[in-house]
Amino acid sequence: MKINLSNRLSFKLARNTVLVALALGMVLNLFQVVLDYLNEKTALDQDIQALITISHTPASQIAYNIDSRLAEELLDGLLKHPAIIEAEIIDTDNRVLARKHRQMTDSAYRWLSDLLFNPTRNYATRLAVQQLSDVDLGNLNVVVDTYPAGTAFLKRAAFTLISGFIKSLTLSALLLFVFYVMLTKPLLKVINSVSEVNPEAPEKVRLPVPKGHQYDEIGILVESTNDHLQTIEKSFQLVRKTESRLKNYSEQLELIVETRTKELSDKNDQLIKSNKESVVAKEEAVRRAKARADFLANMSHEIRTPFNGVLGMISLTMEEPLSDRQKRQLDVAYNSGISLLDLLNDILDISKVEAGKLTLENISFDLRHTVEEVASLLAQNAHAKHIDLVLDIDPAFPEHAFGDPTRVRQVVSNLTGNAIKFTEKGTVTIKLFKQDAFVILQVIDTGIGIAPDAREKIFAPFSQAYSDTTRKYGGTGLGLALCRQLVTHMSGKLTVESIEGEGSCFTTKIPLEIDNTTEHKPIRRPIKDHKFIIIHKEGQPEFLNLIKQLQYWELDIETLTYPESGVDHLKEIEVKDPENTLVLIDQPEVSKVITSVIPAEHVMLVSGKHYAENKDSQHKSFFQIHLHSPFSRSNLEKSLLKLVGEEITEMTSQTLPLRKGGEGHSVLLVEDNQVNQLVAKAILTKLGYLVMIAYNGQEAVDLVKTHPFDAVLMDCHMPIMDGYEATRVIRSVLNKPDLPIIAVTANVMHGDREKCYSAGMDDYITKPYERHELLEVLEKWIELRRREART
Ligand code: ADP
């Protein structure tokens, strides 16, 4: 490898060393020259002074003797000195005794010497003889030319500097050579060896140690490079080994992947095949579920039609004069029929859900009211078993929510019914509150509880917690299955927690949207103007909820409790303003005790299961109103209003006068089943309606043409012409848009109701129906049409 001279290490080293030495030499030389310059300056002075000192005595004798010849000889002697160019002896009056002079040396370099030493120097010495030292004899004056001394100095300086420079040059040449031999050459050797290395296998090379450099830095550098090369070679060997192993492994891996891919694709094929099979199976299952639902719908239709006859006939017979025994037997038969009907409805509902035919309504409804209604319906069952049925509804619970009121009622009613059924003593609490976006409904009982292993099982159709449940409590095991399916359909969850022997808690968590257009109404003014004292036995849950509600209404309340042992200490209570104070008590005994401080008209009894015991007439005079628990919020408000002496002006369904029945209105009954004709006709006649019967749609159309009926009860499935067709003809061909037509059908599947409405019918009731249902629907439509006709 060729390296430029100026780039070589030896050159750089030599150059740098020489430059440093040169600089140092120059400084030293200059120093020496300066020293010489200073010496030369003083040496010239000393030299002349010495000459003058030697000449002083003869010059003084000459001046004393005024001997001009001797004076000139002396001055000639002085001028022999190359530096002295002028000398004179003068007396005290400046008269020249003798003077000698010669020309100054001229030269091209004189300016440099003059610059350093000045051109001339003047010396004067006073002349005197030793005996008459105080007598002034005159002066010896000497003028000196500095040039001879200056040129001598300049020559020396030039020699010093030039020789110094030559020394440095020689030194650098020597150093260059030494460095080349010692450093550059061996390094070049090493470099050449490296550059000859095979690029394919650089680790194979070993660098030669330059001769004579085994123990110096170059030798060590080469050796450690060789060591590294050896290590690299070993590592390369290892890497190559690993590489080859890796190659082997990757080949194996490729093989495995290939095999696995093949297996996977086989499995995938199988999966696609089984997917296809399962899709077919699913379609088959859905088809079967649909077929089962259709079959059940048909079965239900076929069962309901004769069942209408059975229940109708039983209820008609029960109104005849019968012996007690016969009445009891018919009662059992009727209740069994109702249970059978419930079972049928449950089975139908479950099959609807399974066939995907269940659609939920989404309307705004009063959930609080729904729960209160269920509680009030089931209260009798609870009280018959001496169980408290407690409503714990959050007073701030929203007024309305969106959902399916019928299905929600079904769930609440099922869970509460179960809780009462499986509780022998204690309390059943229905709790309702909102938690984030969910409505939480809990039914908590203190009943028999459910064993841990049965807690999931009970949600499967026809499953009960214990094998003897049916024998002991009855039931079919369908209720909870249906509830869970309904709640799941509402995107909610139904769960249970239970401790065997202590009770259960069924929790329903449904995401019902709140209807924000409705708000809580504040409590009416007259109630707010009173103070309330609430007296109850310690730990009465229904009273705690009552207090919560009163507090929510922001009423002025005071609570007093008494222990299990008795009410005696209540005798000491004081009432400051009895006129404006109302007292709510939990049992008649309390009213007896407090009657001395508060008038009976200001006392309200709130009680549930003890009602039967409390009927005792001797207590009755001590309280004004009895509110039966579980009470609804509106009933509580109404009772409080009554207690403060306010009359309730709006008419509720309970306060409407008893209905008078048919009042001679004519009804066309369209029904092909003779038993059902018999039942309906008997009921309608009893209610005071005039009844005409048509066996099918065609007969109905003919009769409507000729008779002015007040309403038509229309079966849907009939021979010759069905109910839908007959309705269409009556509406469009006979042009009777106002004649009330009510469907009476055993079809209860989803869509049947809509089918009736789209055919032009006004309302819809299902078989078997109860007497009051028939009466309500007829009254509603006849009255409505009559009012429309009047306006
Ligand atoms: P049924 O009540 O007709 O038997 P359900 O589906 O409503 O059917 O209930 C299934 C079973 O779950 C019941 O038979 C009973 O064993 C158990 N169960 C339901 N509710 C309760 C409850 N509140 N306490 C104890 N067990 C209950």
Biggest pleated sheet: 5 strands, mixed
Unreliable residue stretches? 611-615, 650-660
* Shape verdict: elongated
Number of helices: 21
**Mean pLDDT level:** 85
The side-by-side strand order for the widest beta sheet comes to: 6-8-9-11-10
Helix content, binned percent: 40-55%
Percentage of β-strand residues: 15-25%
The total strand number stands at 22
Description:
The protein has 791 residues and is an alpha/beta fold. It has 21 helices and 22 strands. It has a five-stranded mixed β-sheet, sandwiched between helices. It has a five-stranded parallel β-sheet with strand order 14-13-15-16-17, with helices on both faces. A five-stranded parallel β-sheet has the order 19-18-20-21-22, with helices on both faces. It starts with 8 loop residues before the first helix and ends with a helix. Adenosine-5'-diphosphate is lined by residues 418-419, 422, 445, 447-450, 458, 464-466, 469, 475-481, 504.
Features:
16% strand; 791 residues; five-stranded parallel sheet; alpha/beta; 21 helices
